């Protein structure tokens, strides 16, 4: 009996913290749905501070950090936010390695970190992005984020300039480098659109791929969808503005 009482005394004080953590996640979800990314992040980070292994709080905090960082004008602050997003996503993978969501957000955060790097480091980070995107799709073949990231991997490799392509061959190997195809980028982004048609980011990046392939009619369709679509994500108004600008510049 004495051992049972001692065990209960050790466990019971933790319960309120777990409840508070769950409450912060729920409040973060409400803020996220209302497109209040900063409020959502504050709640998710509060949840992490109370339970550093809480899976939902970790990947959702990474997601909100990446959302906020995307259009942050201060380059130094933006880079720091992406590093933090990567760190949280890695902790989420450790907490639940068999769930696709954590691997997707790690791929997303690492991809964003890579944008601040030079050609050589960018390619090195690109290998991590590819590995995590493939793991996302292994766990969930129709994960829209995983489809999007993997489609963009194909597109970005095809867009590499000569010196970056040289580094890519060193890090990825010629066979993997040669596997990057515009057609595969279109297939994967098109599938992301099918699975998650309301998400404007899918349409915007698919439009850009069609544009780069000189498929202007298809590009116009997806640009127009972004312009006309409902804003359901925090950065959608930015995507709409970019779609309007890029559509006006599209070749006739």
Describe the overall structure.
It contains 14 helices and no strands. With 252 residues, the chain is mainly alpha-helical. It has a domain at 17-116: Tetratricopeptide repeat domain (Serine Threonine Protein Phosphatase 5, Tetratricopeptide repeat, Alpha Horseshoe). The longest helix has 21 residues, at 75-95. The N and C termini lie far apart (82 Å). The chain has helices spanning 2-11, 14-33, 37-50, 55-69, 75-95, 100-114, 119-139, 144-159, 162-172, 174-178, 182-195, 200-212, 216-228, 236-249. The radius of gyration is 20 Å and the shape is globular.
Helix and strand layout, with pairings?
Blueprint: H1 2-11, H2 14-33, H3 37-50, H4 55-69, H5 75-95, H6 100-114, H7 119-139, H8 144-159, H9 162-172, H10 174-178, H11 182-195, H12 200-212, H13 216-228, H14 236-249
Helix pairs in contact: 2-3, 2-4, 3-4, 4-5, 4-6, 5-6, 6-7, 7-8, 7-9, 8-11, 11-12, 12-13, 13-14
């Amino acid at each position: 009996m004495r051992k049972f009482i001692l065990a209960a005394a050790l466990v019971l004080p933790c319960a309120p913290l777990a409840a508070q953590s769950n409450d912060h996640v729920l409040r973060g979800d409400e803020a996220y749905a209302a497109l209040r990314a900063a409020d959502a992040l504050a709640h998710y980070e509060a949840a992490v501070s109370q339970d550093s292994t809480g899976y939902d709080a970790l990947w959702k905090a990474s997601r909100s950090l990446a959302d906020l960082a995307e259009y942050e004008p201060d380059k130094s602050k933006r880079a720091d936010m992406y590093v933090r997003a990567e760190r949280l996503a890695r902790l989420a993978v450790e907490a639940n390695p068999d769930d696709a969501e954590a691997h997707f957000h790690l791929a997303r955060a690492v991809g964003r970190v890579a944008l601040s790097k030079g050609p050589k480091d960018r390619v090195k980070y690109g290998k991590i992005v590819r590995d995590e995107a493939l793991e996302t799709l292994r766990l969930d073949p129709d994960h829209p984020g995983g489809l999007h990231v993997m489609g963009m991997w194909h597109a970005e490799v095809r867009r590499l300039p000569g010196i970056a392509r040289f580094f890519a061959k060193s890090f990825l190997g010629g066979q993997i480098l040669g596997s990057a195809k515009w057609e595969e980028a279109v297939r994967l982004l098109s599938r992301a659109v099918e699975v998650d048609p309301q998400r404007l980011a899918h349409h915007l990046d698919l439009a850009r791929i069609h544009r780069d392939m000189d498929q202007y009619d298809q590009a116009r369709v997806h640009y127009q969808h972004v312009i006309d679509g409902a804003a359901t994500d925090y950065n959608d108004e930015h995507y709409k503005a970019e779609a309007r600008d890029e559509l006006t510049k599209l070749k006739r």
